[in-house]
Amino acid sequence: DQQVKQNSPSLSVQEGRISILNCDYTNSMFDYFLWYKKYPAEGPTFLISISSIKDKNEDGRFTVFLNKSAKHLSLHIVPSQPGDSAVYFCAANTQGGSEKLVFGKGTKLTVNP
Amino acid sequence: DAGVIQSPRHEVTEMGQEVTLRCKPISGHDYLFWYRQTMMRGLELLIYFNNNVPIDDSGMPEDRFSAKMPNASFSTLKIQPSEPRDSAVYFCASSPNPGHRDTEAFFGQGTRLTVV
């Protein structure tokens, strides 16, 4: 049973436009969420995170939004750049609880010049 | 620090052979994770260690899989005997304290395993 779901396997956007990647979770005990970016032939790298005490966290062009009631989070990239083309993984865990990070299956983002 | 180092980067082996994947975590990190990535299941946690002790191996698919961490700077994931369905990319990651805010896991570059 997938506790973290990324229902869009792929997304294609034009350079300069907004990219929105979505993630849903089912475990209400999750209270810390992370986004990782993965380029081909490399390991995932941490991008941005958000705690459940917040509903928004921003870092430069990247913003993560959290809707706890809907068990939904999203990653916004504005403006999108060709170098953002990668697979984006959503992950979640429980702070102070299990050290397990549960990942979604990933969304492949392609930013076209 | 050079980051998490995995070897080999690529491994091609015949069904039935033993495969050993290796990982050197970032110095000072107390947690080490082994993940497997496949198209069907995404990134799955296989096992993780805290201070060299296996904490949770519930993700290990079968008895054919085993993992060890003999010291703070080295871990192995062994598959014996290997099967074609084990073909995947295996990632090792380490973290200072993954259960707390503002900490995250650092991943190695992965080992792409192909079992023919």
What can you tell me about this protein's structure?
The complex is a heterodimer of chains A (113) and B (116). The model of chain A has no long low-confidence stretch (mean pLDDT 93). With 113 residues, chain A is mainly beta. The N and C termini of chain A lie far apart (37 Å). In chain A, strands 2, 4, 5, 9, 10 and 11 form a six-stranded mixed β-sheet that branches. A five-stranded antiparallel β-sheet of chain A has the order 1-3-8-7-6, with no helix packed on it. Chain A is built from no helices and eleven strands. Chain A is globular, with a radius of gyration of 13 Å. Chain B has 116 residues and is mostly beta strands. Helix content of chain B is 0%, strand content 53%. Chain B contains no helices and eleven strands. Chain B has strands spanning 5-7, 10-13, 19-24, 31-38, 42-50, 53-56, 65-71, 74-79, 88-95, 106-107, 111-115. Classes of the chains: A mainly beta (113), B mainly beta (116). At the A-B interface, strand 4, strand 5 and strand 10 of A face strand 4, strand 5, strand 9 and strand 10 of B.
Helix-residue proportion of chain A: under 10%
Total beta strands of chain A: 11
Tell the overall outline of chain A. globular
Given the structure, what is the number of helices of chain A?
Answer: 0
Low-confidence stretches of chain A: none
Taking all Cα atoms into account, the compactness measure Rg of chain B is 13 Å
Q: Specify the structural class of chain A.
A: mainly beta
Number of strands of chain B: 11
Largest inter-chain contact set: A-B, 26 and 28 residues
- What oligomerization state is this entry in? heterodimer
The average pLDDT score of chain A comes to 93
Helical content class of chain B: under 10%
- Indicate the radius of gyration of chain A in whole angstroms: 13 Å
Residue fraction in strands of chain B: over 45%
The description of the largest β-sheet of chain A is:
6 strands, mixed
How many DSSP H or I helices of chain B? 0
Determine the strand fraction of chain A and express it as a percent band: over 45%
